[in-house]
Amino acid sequence: MDTLPPPPPPPPPPPIFQSNWKALIKSRKRNWLDLPRDVVLTIFRKLGTIDTLHRAHNVCTTWRNISKDPFLYHTIDMPNIGTDLSMDWYLELLCNRAVDYSSGQVTDINIEHFGTDDVLNHIADSVSHLRRLRLVGCYGVTDEGLCEVAEKFPHLEELDITISSLSDTPLQAIGRHCHQLKTFKFNIEGFRHPHMEYDDEAFAIAKTMPGLRHLQLFGNKMSNAGLLAILDGCPLLESLDIRQCFNLNLVGSLGKRCKEQIKYLRRPYDATDDYPFQAEFHYGSPDEEYPDGISDIDFLSDDDFAYYEFSGGSEFSEYDGYEYDF
């Protein structure tokens, strides 16, 4: 029986493909400048604002030009651990540069531990449709500075001011000018001692922010009167976070009112595991003690007693199953 001849070998790859393939394998390098512009933009966006402006911006002329694309700066995220104060000026420079490159298209800005009145003024003068502003540890932002720019943020929907030296005065200005504000956070560290009540911030919110849906006042010094004013002045409120507001006593009619009006409520003694900043009980001067016969348990409401009896002192409460939209 005749044997069939073997099949012919496959044709060799085209010379151009073969040489490029061999060169690529041999060099193990890629020419990043050959990447399409939209691919580079996607990579830069994943880098974040600081790395794009500090690193990619300085690699070559091509990348420098791409790093100026307004597409990259719809969101400007400027985190800073806040340990090297000598670098604050440089972060301010990068932030102002990002605002300029956005061509007024930025809608979301996060500034941590370096914000000043000058930076805020530059944003206000350059951006017309800012919807979200987050200022964390920005002690360089003053009452006067925030009051001055409030009227330039008419489209602001979310404002987060966490750990600041601001008073209630700019809150009134924000409420008067930012009529679309839906989410507001004004957070400090919680102190049990010394016992001080301060309702001016709560009264400012109640008087000027009737459209709020979500409010977080972590560590605030308001009393029951301040909370009641907020419940009256903000009838659309859906979620309220008053953890470590140790002056509040949610018992009786006030506690019932909160349950009926607020869909997602975080109480003064609820767990703080999901709070992104330091959340410890501070007692003021280490020499201060409770008066004779008084202890921590005297500051708990009836609802708090129910929480501890139910959970056995664990860090879980009846609200832990919710997803909170703050």
Q: Which tags fit this structure?
A:
326 residues, alpha/beta, 35% helix, 10% strand, disordered C terminus
Structural write-up:
The chain has 12 helices and 8 strands. The protein has helices at 15-27, 37-47, 49-54, 61-66, 88-101, 117-126, 143-150, 169-177, 200-208, 224-233, 253-261, 302-311; strands spanning 75-78, 108-112, 132-136, 158-162, 183-187, 214-216, 239-241, 264-266. The chain has an 8-stranded parallel sheet with strand order 1-2-3-4-5-6-7-8, covered by helices on one side. It is elongated, with a radius of gyration of 28 Å. The protein starts with 14 loop residues before the first helix and ends in a 15-residue tail after the last helix.
The helix count comes to: 12
Could you estimate the helical fraction of the residues in percent?
Answer: 25-40%
Give the strand order, joined by hyphens, for the main sheet. 1-2-3-4-5-6-7-8
Quaternary structure of the protein: single chain
Give a quick account of the main beta sheet: strands, pairing sense, barrel closure: 8 strands, parallel
Please compute the radius of gyration using only Cα atoms: 28 Å
Shape: elongated
- The N- to C-terminal Cα distance equals 83 Å
**Residue ranges: pLDDT <50 for 5 or more in a row?**
14-19, 283-326
Number of beta strands: 8
Briefly note the structural class of the backbone: alpha/beta
Average residue pLDDT: 82
What's the SSE pattern?
HHHHEHEHEHEHEHEHEHEH
Strand proportion, as a percent range, falls in: 5-15%
